[in-house]
Design goal:
By secondary structure, the protein is mainly β. The protein has 27 helices and 121 strands.
């Protein structure tokens, strides 16, 4: 009894200690669990040790804690550090050289301790200067070199002005002389360009000298050189110039400047842009210059990295000046950020301004000073503070030359470095001499710093067999060190005697030892199974059962220890829900809750107040639209005893007192100055409001002017006139009543003529100005009060307008950009309907709302259709508006009208006219109210009814992302068209301030779906970090169709994010379905909302500030599939383990069957049973169970017949590859059979048995949690081996743990790992477990690879990028943003966003950019986690050298138009070429959307005064010439389309002999996109279907004589998501072909449709009525006089995105592609070098049989060379092949066929040319970089007039009877066009119809 009482007391004492310690921010002394005194003192600064024998508390803790626990002060052992200044000589400003003070300091530190040192520095006004010019000598810099030679005298005079003690030197560089940087052809190595030197890497030409004449003489002899790719090897040159100090000639006490001049980007270490990446070793950072100054190791080592350059330049006191052209300016501007001090200057194209650039940069450098700490030991870190105590970023200080500057250095000794204690590090890493100095200085402050690792003296005096230790141990430093066999704090427990006594581990009220949660060890010590969950002396506490706040354990602000929350520093409460600090409650004066409330739990609880208060209890005047309005009633009642609070009891409740004064202060001196009309005497009173300057005074100061402004009282002289006018008015009213329907208006207009009435009433805005913060806006409108004074009888209508961005002057860059009047924009329109608002209109889906919406749309469309270009209204909604006078209960309708921007005046005019009449067609509206807006201005009207004094104007704010940081809107009351009021306060200014957010909070997606069986909906809230720090956001749930406490439980609270935190989860409890709801068959979908609000610490809300959560009653089915598509084993493996995984709804049971296929030796089938929570099962095949020797083979496993609540995923089958293996030794096999297979067998030799039930679970992107059952016996520990799947097990990492669980960290995201565990004891390792696999979770992707630009013209560029190096998951989309910017990198126009939803399309063609305008391009990638960071680049196309880059050519290139309207942002168009567009083109280079009917093209063109029509046979395009005559009013004109046909050469003639016929070569049309930027057809993909046989049949095998054979080839080409062109090759027939028949039907069996082609010259049809995403069977056969021939069949599908609400309707503008079950995916070409490329394709969607591999053929398109064939094995999702030994400028044709167990599938074809870069004589297509060519198949007979020139036709089956004509002149391969201009206009009509209008002009 006494024993457990002592244990309980000890446990409670330990709990108290833990709670006390956990309240500290980080008590590393206690947390270190130090076993000795020395370990305690080394734990960190401030740690103390208590050696008192009678002390029962923690011996190692903070000094105050040990003292508080009762340790004698005299015995406490501590350690102290020191600091001494060894050399201190004051700065002497008379000595003109750099100086620092003090000069030498010695510091010692305890781990974790920080010290500071004050330092003075002095830089002379002038000093010695070394200037080294490093120049790019590539050919494009030839004019720059010539200019530098001519400026010799100017350069001499410049350097003399910079310093009177100078030297100047010169070096040159190009790039590594190796492919692909340099053209390695022998003639190019001798002379890459005319009049040039051979290529080289770097050469030091002129050593630093003060002889300017000698410098100019040597410079004049230099000649330019050249290289191949645009980026240069300048980094090699910079590094050699830095480290070769003697060869360059740097002086010790001078300022070192390096001027780096180039027009190109740079190569850097492993930059991935060339084949050198990963091949060459790292740069050794040593000098390698020979006697001639040449760099000798350029081809033997890689480029240096950017951090290397920063470090070496700083070490040698060299400051870089990057003098670069505009093309590469953005690269070096970003590079500048990495250097403490560096300058970037922009050169002209010929570098004629290099001297001003150097002079400007030098002045800038002299004005800066950067402090750095060199040779800093690894265990230390530093930072520098300026004189005001602020941290100096990069050590930058504002110290002018000639002045003595001061700064503070803070040096800190780190406790832990990468989980290693400082005292355990290498001595060289924890002590050394730190050199602290400015970057330009050579003289440093030498700080000798070292970390103390003290040793306690008490450890040297050990008391053996001390009485305190019961004679069973030694006493050292007050603590017992027990002998073997004795345990306990005082060595009073025998291990042998108590080892078997488990009763000591049973606490009071417990039945099991250690509460059943741990093992009972010797002396009653419990070792808990899961120490992270269970704790206490008897494992009695569950650390997951502490109190929660907002669903989080201990509010995520503390730890659960022994059943109670131990909060982190600054938090308190039983669930750590309250902040200790009151910092969040301080108002702007620093007063807690403004003195008007109390701070509770970090939030203010304000006292009741008549004035709206902020969260810190300050008056919130902004909420009430101004100070004046908030104080008006109280000021009026106190000063004049009038107004709405004139009753004394109400007036006494006012929160301030009014002081009457004779004169008011100016408006600039107070918070606001107010003026109001007193209704009782028609006088105006004036007062000011200001905040009391005394913080202790909480009331506002209100001063009232003693005198009012009153109108003249005597109006008796007007009485006779008034009576006369009344009589006249009566007569007029009588006439109006008789002859005019609008007598009221006439009466009011007449009254307006009266001067007395005019003076009597006025209208105007209430306030002068509003100041709003964008982050606090809850609406895109502001209700701006307008007031009316004077007699309130009668009606006044006021027209108003608002203008955006009035703060921009006429010369502002944005103001100079004129909007496109033809741009289609949205016009928001608001009207007040003549009907009361009902509750049903709040719900858009209600029947009333739907009917009213239809009525509004019908009538508004009828009215607005008179305006040209106007489309139908959309997005109609209904609302009420408060403070709207007597009609505030009437319905306000908001809608959007799409129209051209130029239609704005017409829309306003039509709207105003119909509002005045009270009718919009048949829709009744209230006169006097409307609003019409654009994206930059708005106009409208409001109506004051009789008796109405005030109402709100609903002003749009035009909030946009591209707004300036501070913008102004001007709202103006224009006039009063109806009424007698005059306009008083005419304008009001609205200022909107846009704070730059430090973080952006958002939900990851707009909607989530959870099942009730999930019990909890975990909603992630993402944070995008812009500037890292701590921040908060508020969340809460709201009812929709789901109700609180019925379907779910409401949660709300604040989420706090620390440094680096990007995502947190909010759990929402879901409730079970009620009995009543469970009986309903047609149950309503249950949804609730979660909303984010109140972001703090500079954060703002992002894309999804709210999300909708749907609660599903029925869970989604489980998905089961094989974990991997391929499994690899050897014949020597004892068993084959194939994992099957389950996702979704894993809480239920599920089953699936499996069996083997295509195997000779392993016949196996069975059922896998998944229990609740199980996500992975293994199929285990043991070879020993099968007779005979195991032979290598490949077989399949297949899953089938899942249970009703499950389905099978995409990996239904897996391929098992069994290869020959090395046999195991018999001993090893026997041991594994004894200990590995049979876990219950006795371990031979005493080795531990195998742990059981090994489970792995991914807990994050870089973490995997392993758990297993403890091995029987007493193992010393466990070894966990883990490796990446696919790597050999011998490369595994080993983790040694003592507990039956392990946490694997620092893993790769979204990566498969394999693991196994073994136990070990003193004898050695036991047997391993089976291998288990686990995949880490996805993480956000990294930034995409470097952006590459292919400049096609000054307004057209093709941008491409590489996949992120760290995809961290499956990339699902890319986003491209491009923005015009100015020289300061600020936007000068709207940003355009393009979403590319295919991860394989990493390329975008952008047309119609602004000429000579710099753009910033940003690209980011997205996976299932979200968006990754941007990769950005800045480029000006006009200044970009037109040198092509090696970029991949993809068949489907997205194209966008930079000048198009918003519809192009989401409407991507695709080209099947990398197109070049003529500079006059105003639209994307895509054409061919012409309509065809029955194989005929029919286009209508409208011309002024006439019409013209073009008819074109489908068979003649593109296989024949196009000749058309156009007639227009007053004349006619004709155009010709000329096409070049190139056929195969005799050397490449090839026959493919098929069953029943002979296959012939195709005729290729090579389109010249240099001459025309449009394709003749919008064919984005083609698939060719033919027979391929392994045998050659007899050529004479025919059908009946005269019957046509099978059409030999079918070609399918997609024209749209529902349109398909079907072409075929004419079959062989001994008689004339009379026609063709095309049959097609849905593959799943539907009506067969038939198209008859009666013209035998036509060999294609176009079909428009197909369904997207449906497979069709096509059949084509030919007819002669003898009858019909056999059919050629093909199955094809057009895949496209469809409308979710209408699965048969494609989304407008969505991409589409062809697929057939057995054709490979589209071919993708990527150039690797001038003579090699990489070809890749996707596997067929549904291959006919199992894929065994692919056959790839390659041949020259125009003959010459052999046909090359490649065999590619495997069935990967994407296959690649590298093809070497190609010839540049020669077009090649590639064909890819899949080889399956059933034979060969259809071919996928592509044609590619790798063109030379230097445009030599070899290339006849020298204007293009890489171009994909289209394949068009021609019939053997063409009836149009055709002739072939410059071609050869040697195929007998093509040349017989063929006549071809070209009507053009060909010269040198160039095709000239007679069409001078073609403009293509696109518009989307009716969902998916695309129309095209073409205008030709001569």
């Amino acid at each position: 009894m006494r024993r457990w009482t002592i244990k309980l007391s000890a446990g409670l004492g330990l709990l108290t200690i833990l709670l006390t310690c956990c309240y500290a921010e980080e008590n590393y002394c206690f947390a270190s669990r130090s076993k000795t005194c020395s370990e305690c003192l080394r734990a960190g600064a401030g740690c103390a040790y208590c050696p008192d024998e009678n002390f029962n508390g923690p011996r190692c803790d903070l000094y105050n804690n040990i003292k508080a626990h009762g340790c004698s002060v005299a015995t406490i052992i501590t350690a102290k550090s020191s600091m001494t200044i060894d050399k201190h000589r004051a700065i002497d400003t008379k000595i003109q050289k750099s100086q620092v003070s003090p000069q030498e300091v010695t510091m010692t530190f305890l781990p974790g301790e920080e010290k500071s040192l004050d330092v003075e520095v002095f830089s002379p006004i002038t000093g010695p200067l070394d200037l080294y010019i490093l120049m790019d000598f590539s050919n494009s810099m030839s004019d720059d070199l010539d200019n530098l030679k001519r400026m010799g005298k100017e350069l001499a005079s410049l350097i003399k002005t910079l310093s009177n003690d100078y030297t100047i030197g010169f070096g040159k560089f190009v790039d590594k002389v190796i492919e692909p940087q340099t053209d390695m052809r022998p003639e190019k190595l001798k002379k890459p360009w005319p009049n040039s030197d051979p290529p080289f890497s770097f050469q030091n030409v002129i050593k630093l000298t003060n002889d300017l004449d000698d410098f100019n003489s040597k410079l004049g002899k230099e000649v330019i050189s050249g290289n191949l790719d645009p980026p240069e090897g300048g980094f090699d040159a910079i590094l050699q110039a830095a480290v070769c100090g003697d060869q360059i000639g740097w002086r010790e006490h001078s300022t070192h400047l390096l001027v780096f001049s180039t027009e190109s980007a740079f190569h850097y270490e492993s930059d991935g842009a060339n084949v050198l990446s990963g091949v060459l070793p790292r740069n050794d950072e040593l000098c390698h210059l020979d006697a001639n100054g040449n760099y000798t190791e350029a081809t033997n080592q890689d480029y240096p990295s950017i951090p290397t350059l920063v470090r070496l330049l700083g070490k040698h006191n060299i400051i870089p000046i990057f003098a670069v052209t505009s093309y590469s300016y953005s690269y070096y501007k970003k590079l500048q950020e990495y250097f403490p001090i560096a300058e970037v200057g922009e050169l002209t194209q010929d570098s004629s301004n290099i001297l001003p650039v150097i002079q400007t940069a030098f002045k800038s450098i002299r004005s800066k000073m950067s402090i750095q700490a060199e040779e800093l030991p690894k265990a230390f870190e530093t930072q520098f503070l300026n004189s005001s105590g602020q941290v100096a970023e990069y050590g930058l200080l504002n110290i002018k030359p000639g002045d003595i500057g001061t700064f503070k250095m803070q040096l800190k000794a780190q406790r832990m470095i990468e989980e290693e204690h400082a005292c355990e590090m290498n001595p060289a890493d924890r002590e050394g001499i730190v050199r602290v100095k400015p970057t330009t200085f050579n003289t440093p402050v030498r700080v000798k710093a070292s970390i103390l690792c003290p040793t306690c003296d008490c450890e040297k005096t050990r008391i053996p067999k001390a009485d305190r230790c019961h004679g069973n141990g030694d006493l050292m430093c007050g603590k017992c060190q027990c002998n073997n066999g004795w345990l306990g704090n005082f060595c009073n427990c025998s291990a042998s005697a108590s080892a078997l006594d488990t009763n000591q581990c049973i606490g009071p009220g417990m039945k099991e030892p250690c509460s059943g949660r741990g093992d009972c060890q010797a002396c009653g010590t419990c070792v808990c199974y899961k120490p992270e969950q269970f704790g206490g002396p008897y494992c009695q506490y569950d650390n997951t059962q502490c109190k929660r706040h907002s669903g989080f354990l201990c509010n995520d602000r503390g730890s659960c220890i022994m059943g109670q929350c131990a909060c982190t520093e600054g938090w308190e409460g039983d669930a750590c829900q309250c902040l200790k600090s009151n910092q969040t409650c301080l108002d702007s004066k620093g007063v807690v809750c403004g003195g008007r409330g109390k701070c509770v739990c970090g939030r203010c609880e304000c006292h009741k107040s008549e004035i709206e208060l902020t969260s810190t209890c300050e008056p919130n005047f902004q909420y009430q639209f101004g100070v004046c309005e908030a104080t008006r009633s109280c000021a009026q009642c106190q000063a004049w005893k009038t107004g709405e609070k004139k009753k004394k009891e109400e007036c006494d409740m006012c929160p301030f007192r009014v002081v009457m004064v004779e004169e008011l202060k100016e408006k600039e001196q107070v918070l606001d100055k107010c003026s109001f009309l007193d209704e009782e005497d028609e006088c105006t009173y004036h007062y000011t409001v200001e905040v009391n300057k005394d913080p202790s005074v909480k009331e506002l100061m209100v001063e009232m002017l003693e005198k009012k402004d009153c109108p003249v009282s005597s109006l008796l002289w007007l009485l006779p006139l008034f009576l006369f006018l009344l009589l006249l008015l009566a007569l007029l009213l009588l006439c109006c009543w008789k002859y005019c329907a609008c007598c009221t208006a006439c009466w009011q207009r007449f009254l307006a003529l009266l001067p007395c009435w005019k003076r009597g009433r006025s209208v105007g805005f209430k306030e002068d100005e509003y100041l709003l913060r964008q982050s606090q806006l809850t609406s895109d409108h502001l209700d701006t009060p307008m007031v009316r004074t004077g007699p309130l009888k009668g009606t006044d209508v006021v027209r108003w307008k608002v203008t955006d961005n009035v703060h921009r002057g006429p010369s502002h860059p944005q103001a100079l950009i004129k909007p496109n009047p033809k741009e289609m924009i949205q016009f928001p329109i608001s009207l007040r309907l003549n009907r009361l608002f009902s509750e049903n209109l709040f719900h858009p889906e209600s029947r009333d709302a739907e009917q009213l919406r239809k009525e509004v749309a019908d009538n508004l469309n009828e009215v607005y259709k008179q305006i040209p270009g106007v489309q139908k209204v959309q997005q109609t909604s209904f609302r009420m508006q408060r403070n709207a006078g007597k009609r505030q209960d009437y319905t306000i309708m908001d809608t959007v009208l799409p129209a051209h921007r130029s239609s704005y005046p017409d829309i306003v005019k039509v709207t105003e006219k119909n509002v005045q009449s009270g009718n919009f067609h048949d829709l009744k509206v209230v006169p006097g109210y409307y609003t019409v807006a654009t994206d930059r201005e708005a106009a409208g009207a409001v109506e004051f009814q009789e008796g109405v004094e005030s109402l709100d104007v609903h002003v749009p704010l035009f909030v946009k992302d591209e707004d300036d940081d501070k913008k102004q809107l001007l709202v103006e009351a224009k006039d009063v068209p109806l009424g007698i009021a005059e306009i008083g306060k005419r304008v009001v200014n609205i200022t909107i301030i846009k704070e730059h957010a430090t973080s952006i909070f958002s939900f990851l997606q707009p909607a989530y779906t959870y099942s009730r069986q999930d019990a909890v909906a975990n909603i992630p809230i993402s944070r995008e970090i812009i500037e890292d720090g701590r921040t908060q956001v508020t969340y809460r749930t709201q009812d929709d169709t789901a109700k609180d406490k019925k379907d779910y439980l409401t949660v709300e609270g604040d989420l706090s994010y620390g440094l680096g935190e990007t995502q947190k989860m909010v759990p929402v409890p879901l409730l079970e379905l009620g009995e009543k709801d469970g009986l309903l068959e047609d149950k309503q979908i249950k949804q609730f909302l979660m909303v984010l609000s109140n972001p703090r610490q500079g954060a703002k809300l992002g894309r999804y500030p709210r999300t909708t959560v749907t609660i599903m009653d029925q869970p989604e089915p489980s998905v089961m599939m094989f974990k991997k598509g391929t499994q690899n084993f050897t014949t020597s493996d004892l068993q084959y383990t194939i994992p099957v995984v389950r996702t979704r709804n894993t809480d239920s049971t599920a089953t699936v069957k499996f069996h083997t296929k295509k195997t000779q030796q392993f016949k196996r089938s069975g059922v896998l049973n998944f229990g609740p929570g199980e996500t992975e099962k293994n199929i285990v095949i043991k070879p020993e169970e099968y007779p005979g020797p195991i032979q290598p083979e490949t077989f399949q496993l297949e899953l089938f017949d899942p249970s009703s609540n499950a389905s099978i995923g995409e990996r239904r089958t897996t391929l098992v590859n069994l290869t020959e293996g090395v046999p195991r030794s018999p001993e090893k096999s026997q041991m594994q059979q004894m200990g590995y297979v049979s876990q219950k067998a006795t371990s031979p030799g005493g080795f531990p048995l195998t742990p059981e039930n090994l489970k792995a679970k991914a807990t994050g992107p870089r973490n995997i949690r392993l758990n297993w059952d403890p091995a029987p016996g007493n193992p010393v520990g466990y070894k966990v081996k883990y490796w990446i799947y696919g790597d050999p097990e011998k490369d595994a990492q080993v983790l040694d743990v003592k507990t039956p669980h392990a946490e694997l960290t620092d893993l790769y995201p979204y990566c498969d790992y394999e693991m196994r565990v073994c136990a070990y004891n003193v004898l050695g390792d036991g047997y391993d477990t089976d291998i288990v696999s686990c995949q880490t979770l996805e993480d956000g992707p990294g930034e995409p690879g470097r952006l590459a630009f292919n400049v096609i013209s000054p307004t057209v560029t093709q941008v491409s990028w590489a996949e992120p190096a760290e995809t961290n998951g499956n990339i699902t989309a890319y986003e491209v943003i491009y923005t015009p910017i100015d020289d300061e990198l600020k936007p000068v126009g709207a940003a355009k966003k393009v979403m590319i939803d295919s991860p394989k399309k990493r390329m975008l063609l952008i047309e119609n950019l602004q000429s000579a305008q710099t753009y910033q391009y940003k690209v980011r990638a997205k996976n299932s986690v979200g968006w990754g960071p941007f990769r950005d680049a800045t480029i000006n196309l006009a200044s970009q050298p037109t040198r092509p880059l090696s970029i991949p050519i993809i068949p489907d290139v997205p194209i966008v138009d930079a000048e198009a309207g918003d519809e192009y942002d989401s409407y991507l168009m695709y080209s099947n070429d990398v197109l070049k567009s003529p500079t006059s083109s105003k639209t994307p280079s895509v054409s061919g959307d012409d309509y065809m009917t029955n194989g005929k093209w029919d286009q209508n063109f409208l011309f002024p005064g006439g019409s013209l029509t073009r008819n074109l046979s489908a068979s003649s395009s593109p296989m024949s010439t196009l000749s058309s005559n156009y007639r227009a009013g007053g004349g006619s004109m004709s155009t010709e389309t000329n096409t070049t046909y190139l056929t195969g050469h005799s050397g490449s003639y090839r026959k493919d002999m098929m069953g029943g016929g002979v296959h012939t070569t195709e005729v290729i049309m090579r389109k010249r996109s240099e001459n025309r930027g449009y394709t003749d057809e919008n064919i984005r993909d083609s698939i060719v279907m033919t027979d391929v046989s392994s045998k050659f049949p007899d050529l004479d095998a025919r059908f009946s004589p005269g019957v046509p054979e099978t059409p030999s080839r079918l070609v399918f080409s997609a024209l749209g998501p529902t349109a398909l062109k079907v072409s075929w090759q004419e079959p062989h027939c001994e008689k004339d072909i009379l026609g063709y028949c095309v049959l097609y039907q849905l593959l799943n069996g539907a009506e067969m449709k038939r198209i008859d082609v009666t013209n035998p010259a036509e060999n294609s049809v176009i079909i428009h009525d197909l369904l997207p995403n449906h497979s069709y069977l096509f059949k084509v056969k030919a007819q002669s006089q003898e009858g019909w021939g056999p059919e050629r069949e093909g199955v094809i599908t057009i895949e496209s995105a469809v409308d979710p609400k209408s699965p048969l309707s494609p989304m407008p503008g969505s991409p589409f592609t062809l697929s057939t079950p057995s054709a490979p995916g589209p071919l993708v070409f990527t150039a690797l070098s001038p003579d090699s490329l990489q070809l890749s394709w996707e596997k067929p969607r549904k291959p006919n049989g199992d894929i065994l591999g692919y056959v790839v053929t390659c041949e020259q398109l125009h003959g010459g060379g052999d046909v090359r064939s490649f065999q590619v094995n495997g069935d990967s999702a994407e296959t690649s092949l590298t093809v070497p030994n190609l010839t540049e400028n020669i077009p090649y044709k590639f064909k890819v066929q899949a080889r399956t167990t059933q034979g060969f599938g259809p071919e996928r074809e592509g044609i590619i040319t790798i063109e030379s870069q230097d445009g030599g004589a070899l290339s006849q297509y020298n204007n293009q970089s890489l171009t994909r060519r289209d394949v068009f198949l021609m019939p053997t007979e063409v009836t149009t007039q055709t002739n072939v020139s410059h071609t050869m036709l040697n195929d007998p089956y093509f040349s017989d009877g063929m006549m071809m004509t070209t009507q053009h002149t060909e010269s040198g391969g160039m095709v000239t066009r007679q069409i001078t201009r073609e403009v293509v206009q696109r518009s989307v009509m009716g969902g998916s119809t695309v129309t095209k209008k073409m205008f030709y002009e001569t």
